[in-house]
Amino acid sequence: MRSVPRVARWVAGTLLPRRDRCHILIELEELYAHRRSQAGGFRARVWYWWQAVAFPIRLFAERLLPRGGRGPFRRRTPRLGFSELLASGLQDLRYASRGLWRSPGFASVAVVTLALGIGVNIALFSVIDAVVLRPLPFPESHRIVTLSPERVHSPAQVVALRTAASAYAAQAASAREAFTLTADGTTSEFNGYVVGVEHFDVFGVEPALGRRFVGEDESPTATPIALLSYEFWQRHFGGAPDIIGRTVPIGGENATTRTIVGVMPRGYKPFRSAVEIYVPAVIDPANEHDYLGHARFRLMGRLLPEVHVDAARAELRRVVSQLSVGSDAVFRPERVESADVQRYHEVLVGDLGPTLWLLFASVGGILLIACVNVANLLLARAGARQREMAIRTAIGAGQLRIMRQLLTENTLLGLLGGLVGLSFTWGGMSIMVAHLPATITSVGDVHVDSTVLLFALGLSVLTGAMFGLLPAWRTSRSLAAALRAGGRAATAGQKRLRLNSILVATEIALCVVLVVAAGLLVKSFWRLNQVDPGFDVEGLSTMRVALSPDRYGTDEARVLYFNRVEERIESVPGVLATGAIQLLPLTQSSSAVSISPDGKAMAEKAARFYASYRQVTPGYMSAMRIPLLSGRQLERADGASDPLVGLINEALANKLWPDGGVVGQQVVYDDGSPWFTVVGVVGDVHQNMLSVPGREELFLPYAQDPESNAMYLMVRADPGVEVTNAVKDAIWSVDPNVAISRESTMDAVIARSMAEARFSTLLFSTFALLALALGAVGVYGVLAYVVSQRTHEIGVRMALGANARDVVRGTMRSGMAAVTIGLVIGLLGAFATMRLLGSLLFGVTATDPTVYLGVVAVLVAVAALATWIPAGRAARVDPVVSLNSE
Amino acid sequence: MGRESLGEFEHQVLLAILRLGQDSYSVAIVLQLEGCRGRSVAPAAVYIALRRLEKKGLVVSRMVDPEESGEKHSRRYFTLQPEALDRLKESRDAFDRLWDGLDPVFGR
Question: What is the ipTM of this complex?
Answer without folding.
Answer: 0.90
